[in-house]
Structure formats: structure tokens, C-alpha cells
Design a protein that fits this description.
Helix content: 10-25%
Radius of gyration: 34 Å
Shape: elongated
Largest sheet: 4 strands, antiparallel
Structural class: alpha+beta
Number of helices: 13
Distance between the termini: 120 Å
Length: 562
């Protein structure tokens, strides 16, 4: 007998040492003293007044419910509002299986001490009856919680959901007998070794990335899922973000307080901002509502260079890596799963379906920027493709007629606070002033945007057009009155009528009162003529030739008003 007792004691000691070792290694931890220990002797915040049994709150050895392993609780009769989002290919229904068991406590509708094996509910300290508050109470609206009770199989993965095939899941992550993902796929109610009853470590997003295949990023702060997301009771709802929307979540770091993160918040407070998600009707068309993730995929952004069409001064393609593997629209109008250049991202909103009118009303109206920048356009600023003209003598060093440029060479922060098109105090989100009001006095600051690339001295010396100085200095006519800064599509313009970005502003330039015509005609060799009325002066026509002195430019006998 003594030997048998010693053997038993030895076995118990060995088991104890084994459990202690496994507990120390983080592999197992008893329910005892965990938040799921609701007994009177526990250290849990919610616990019983007198009940000393630990397992009784979920399990009973006899007369248990057949819905779960010796289950000792009634199931909630509540109908749940289930998770849904445009990005979820699965269609979760009402909670089933183990998730239904978990919700018998965590939806806050059934008393914690209400047990099948007890005729009266177990009394809890502090008068607590249900999980009525705090993160543990998920409620019956599950739209802000990670989806559950949906089939997780290769069919779902093949729908392009950025999910890993479940055949490769770690053994800790288990699906139920119907191959459905349940609460127990991520949580083990009996083991709190990793905190929050997770089935495995998630300190570096190991648990999340076991199912989700989001790509790679080398941007500091983008690699940890929990920095931006929370699985339960997320303020944003479906996207499970830590803030109420995408922008607020991003600005948690991009507010000038986090090292290595751009201070985008400062630009977002300016008069003109790119983000409109918080101020526009959520039912508005997708291409009229912009958020950070309209232009950036935070999971695949990199510091490195991405492919881009830019090659001119200020058009370093390295910034394209910061877009990540984001969708776009090609120059031909075809949807792209992954854009390869900045302007293709812009075309998602500023091409087909764009209802926003141009900043300057013109003779040839067009708000589809993709057509204006198309390689087939009559004339254009060279975004993604070379321009049409081989003679642009005003270009500053570093630029040539073979250069291409990016949208952000003109649009972005006016103070250089952050890279990208986030906010500016200048209309149209411009990086520098570009006055369009008629009778604006010419100065280096009034047309600072144009003078970024075009030499002011060349313009005022009339090296490309003999009337430049007369128009913008003497008559105080803005650049925008004659030139359309984006371009003129082939379907609207002609080579003779719309070269050199000529597309008159309709509020200032009117038909010629003598001939009734309103047009510009390019005669080739930097010569041409205009039929129009501007500032009360009729051009019937007015001809010019590059290289002529300003005084040789044909002007009417009576000058227009100053």
C-alpha cells in the first residue's frame, strides 16, 4: 500500500511539474483565476457571492443540455444582427455551434448565474446579473465583431478574399465539423496563456495572419494588425477599425506625434481636403467619396520604388510604393486590379463617372481627366505620356519635351507638410498658387504653379508667344483664360484649333462680334490667329508669329479697357 501511494504521489508530482512547465512556456493555463473563473474564490472582476465550483458556470456532470459538451446554460432566443461588408465574400448567418454557446454569456441577454442545473440563479457580487457593459458584452448586434458561423473553405479563398487556404491552418485554429469558423477558432475558453483566451500568440499578428493573407509592407506601424484593428466592438463597424472610420484610424499615427509618420492631420485641417468620407452621404457613388484606402493599400505599402511612368524633374517614381497594391484605371479606361502608376489611381475617381465640374468653365467642357491625359489627346500636360509639342522654350532646366509628370507635381500640400494629395489651402488642392480670376496682376506668386516648370523670364520676354506679356501683364489676363491645364481630348478638339492647351475660358472669352467666330487656328511654326472677343476687344482675327517684337503683334485700333 505504501508503495502504491508513493507511486501515486510521484505521478501526481510529475503531472504537476509537467503542467507547471507547460504553463511557464505559455502553452497551457488553467481556467482557475482566469476571467472565466466565476467562482467566489477567484480574483475575477465578475464572480459569485458563495458558489465555489469553477466549471459549473458552463458545464454540468448530469442533466446537461445536448447542444454542447455537458452544457449547463440555456441558449439565447435572440435574433442577431450579423456581420456584413462589401469586402466579405462569405455570407454569415445566425450564430451556430460553439459561437452560440459563447453568446449565452457574451450577448448580455441571459443572467450569468442562470444555470440549467440550478433552480435559482447563482448570485454574483455587486448585484451583477449579466455582462451589461465592457468589452466582454458583444450584444446582439454583431456587425462590429469579427464574422463567425460561416464556411471557411477553398471555395471562399478562391473568390479573391485575401484568405489563406484553410488546409494550411495551424493546428491551434480549429473549424467545426461543418468547416465553419466559430468563436472557438480564435479563442480557447479554458486557456488564457496568451491573453484574451486566444488559441495562439498574436503579439506579431501570428493569429490574424494564419487566416488573412494581406501582403507585405516595410512601413513602420503597418505590420501589426492590432494597431489599426480590433476584433470585437470596433467603433467603425464592418472594417473592425479602432476608430470610427478609415481616416481617423490612419490619423492616429499620421498626426505629427508618431516618429517616421507623415503629419497628414495638419493638411487634413486645411480649406481643401481630399478625404470626404466624414462629410459626404455614405450612399454617394464610390468615385465621389475618398478615404485613405481609396488611394493606399496600407497592408502592401513600401518605402521602395514602384513602377510609374514619370521621368521628369520632381517625378521620382519612388513615392508610388507608398500607394501599395491598390486598384486603378488604365489610360484606356480598363479597370486594373493593381495600378502601376500614380495617375491610374487618380483615374478611379476623376475619369468615367466624375460629376464634379472643372474649376474653370471652358468652351470645350470636359471633366473626365483620363480623356484629357490620353495619349491620343490633341494637347496635354504630359501625365503618364509625352506631350504633343516639340517646341516649349519656356521649360526650366531638368524638364524637356520628352519629360512626363505626375498628378502630384501640381496637386498636393501647399506647405509640403505631407507627401500626396491630402489637403491644401489653395483651391483644387494645388501645391502652389494658380490664380484664375480675371484681371489678376501678374507676379511670381500669382502663377507660382506655372512657374514651377515654366521660366517666368522666358514667358514675360515673349520667347514662345509674342503676346504673353501683353496678355498677362498689361491686360492682366490669367493663364487659365487661354490654357486648359490638363488637356483637350481627341474627341473634342482639333490639331489646328486646340494645340498648346488652347481651350478658352467661356466666362471671359466670347465670340468675335465682327465675324461671330470663337476659335484659335494654329498655322504651324509657332504662328496662328484668334477669332474672339476678350475684355471688349474684337479679334477678327488677330494674328501672331513667334519671335516678333511685341509691338509687331497685330492689335485693334482701340485698346480694350484696363
Amino acid at each position: 500500500m505504501r508503495t502504491r501511494c508513493a507511486s501515486i504521489l510521484t505521478l501526481v508530482a510529475m503531472i504537476g511539474l509537467t503542467l507547471a512547465a507547460r504553463r511557464a512556456s505559455g502553452q497551457i493555463m488553467s481556467v482557475v483565476d482566469s476571467p472565466h473563473d466565476l467562482s467566489a474564490g477567484s480574483r475575477a472582476e465578475v464572480r459569485a457571492v458563495r458558489e465555489e465550483q469553477v466549471c459549473i458556470f458552463c458545464h454540468a456532470p448530469h442533466n446537461a443540455s445536448p447542444v454542447g459538451a455537458l452544457w449547463n446554460r440555456s441558449l439565447s432566443p435572440q435574433a442577431y444582427t450579423v456581420y456584413t461588408s462589401q469586402s466579405l465574400a462569405a455570407k454569415p448567418g445566425q450564430p451556430t455551434g460553439a459561437s452560440k454557446l459563447c453568446l449565452s454569456c457574451h450577448d448580455g441577454t441571459i443572467a450569468i448565474g442562470s444555470l440549467l442545473g440550478r433552480s435559482t440563479p447563482v448570485q454574483m457580487t455587486g448585484g451583477v446579473t449579466t455582462l451589461s457593459q465592457g468589452a466582454s458584452n458583444l450584444g446582439t448586434d454583431l456587425r462590429d465583431d469579427h464574422p463567425i458561423s460561416f464556411r471557411f473553405d477553398s471555395t471562399l479563398v478562391n473568390r479573391g478574399t485575401k484568405l489563406r487556404d484553410p488546409s494550411g491552418l495551424p493546428h491551434q485554429i480549429r473549424l467545426d465539423n461543418n468547416r465553419e469558423l466559430q468563436c472557438t477558432s480564435c479563442h480557447d475558453a479554458h486557456n488564457n496563456a496568451f491573453g484574451k483566451f486566444l488559441v495562439m500568440r498574436n503579439s506579431s499578428s501570428e493569429l490574424c495572419l494564419s487566416c488573412h493573407q494581406m501582403g507585405q509592407t516595410d512601413i513602420t506601424g503597418h505590420g501589426q494588425c492590432s494597431d489599426c484593428h480590433q476584433s470585437h466592438s470596433a467603433p467603425s463597424g464592418a472594417y473592425l477599425l479602432r476608430k470610427s472610420n478609415v481616416s481617423e484610424t490612419c490619423l492616429t499615427c499620421h498626426s505629427g506625434t508618431t516618429p517616421h509618420a507623415s503629419n497628414i492631420a495638419a493638411d487634413m485641417k486645411k480649406a481643401y481636403v481630399h478625404d470626404t468620407a466624414s462629410s459626404v452621404d455614405p450612399a454617394a457613388p464610390a468615385n465621389q467619396v475618398a478615404t485613405c484606402t481609396s488611394c493606399h493599400d496600407p497592408h502592401t505599402m513600401t518605402h521602395g520604388a514602384g513602377r510609374a511612368a514619370a521621368s521628369g524633374q520632381g517625378s521620382n517614381s519612388a513615392s508610388f510604393g507608398r500607394f501599395g497594391l491598390i486598384s486603378g484605371v488604365s489610360a484606356s479606361g480598363a479597370p486594373m486590379k493593381v495600378a502601376t502608376a500614380e495617375h491610374e489611381v487618380c483615374f478611379k475617381c476623376h475619369a468615367e463617372g466624375n460629376t464634379r465640374p472643372p474649376a474653370v468653365a471652358r468652351r470645350l467642357a470636359q471633366n473626365n481627366v483620363r480623356l484629357q491625359f490620353s495619349p491620343s489627346a490633341i494637347s496635354l500636360h504630359p501625365v503618364g505620356t509625352q506631350g504633343r509639342s516639340s517646341q516649349v522654350p519656356s521649360l526650366k532646366p531638368g524638364w524637356s519635351t520628352a519629360s512626363t509628370m505626375r498628378c502630384t507635381d501640381c496637386h498636393g500640400s501647399d506647405s509640403g507638410t505631407s507627401p500626396g494629395v491630402h489637403g491644401s489651402n489653395i483651391p483644387s488642392l494645388l501645391v502652389a498658387r494658380y490664380e484664375t480670376a480675371d484681371r489678376t496682376s501678374e507676379s511670381a506668386t500669382a502663377y507660382a504653379l506655372c512657374y514651377k516648370c515654366h521660366d517666368r523670364g522666358s514667358i514675360l520676354d515673349n520667347r514662345s508667344f509674342p503676346g504673353h506679356r501683353q496678355h498677362i501683364v498689361d491686360q492682366r489676363t490669367p493663364c487659365s483664360v487661354c490654357h486648359d491645364s490638363h488637356g483637350i481630348p481627341a474627341s473634342q478638339g482639333t490639331v489646328t484649333g486646340n494645340s498648346h492647351l488652347i481651350n478658352f475660358a467661356s466666362a471671359t472669352v466670347l465670340p468675335d462680334r465682327v465675324t461671330g467666330r470663337l476659335e484659335y487656328r494654329d498655322s504651324g511654326g509657332m504662328t496662328g490667329e484668334c477669332f474672339l472677343t476678350c475684355h471688349g476687344v474684337d479679334h477678327s482675327p488677330k494674328r501672331y508669329q513667334a519671335g516678333f517684337a511685341p509691338g509687331l503683334l497685330q492689335v485693334p485700333a482701340r485698346p480694350g479697357p484696363r
